[in-house]
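Because discrete structure vocabularies remain unfamiliar, we first show an illustrative case, written as a sequence plus integers encoding its fold.
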Amino acid sequence: AIGKWAQSDYRLRFPEVAGENLPYAPDVSSFASIQGGTEPTTKENACTFLFCGQMIARKGTDVLLESFARVASNHPNAKLLMVGREEEGQDFWAELPAGDWRKQVERVGFVAPQDLPAFFGQADVFVLPSRHDGWGVVVHQAAAAGLPVIASDAVGSVRDLVADGISGWVVPAGEAEPLAGAMESLATDAAKRQEMGGESRLLGLTITPEKEAQKWVAFVDRVAMAKVA
């Protein structure tokens, strides 16, 4: 199973079969080498929220924009940095209120994978409000970068990489109000962001290619021995 969420689902579906948690383990060393929120700023109480992914309904882009509109109304120095390809034919702005808050959103568009760490380094908080994500590697990248993570409970990797209330917040998928509340709680609390970011980095570094490779070898050995027996 790729993560604890998948493992628990398999146990429900196939209770008679033994399951193993072998999460996806990309190399996040380029993210671990940078520190989130290090860009110098002269703005008091400035906070940059980062979203990275396809700008589609499944990723909760509409919920994110609605939530940020609420946060920005109280925090004129907050910023939402959106990295990713925009889906043609989907206009998430149409139903949202007009106002200066829109000037606080920066849409970067598609960024090559090797260039992503630079954008994570500009952020203070990472947000992924997906309606469904089987894993969500960007959560791992954000954690390794030392960013507090706000993610929905429909993102598979949060069960392995986000400690709710400690390294970030887990919010209900598809709901703008809880997401806005979580963003609001970190918008002006730099000390809390730093504390959560440190915890997030620790979690991000618990899953590495080397550690997971060893787990795979041990798993295959157990399966092979069971077949021999």
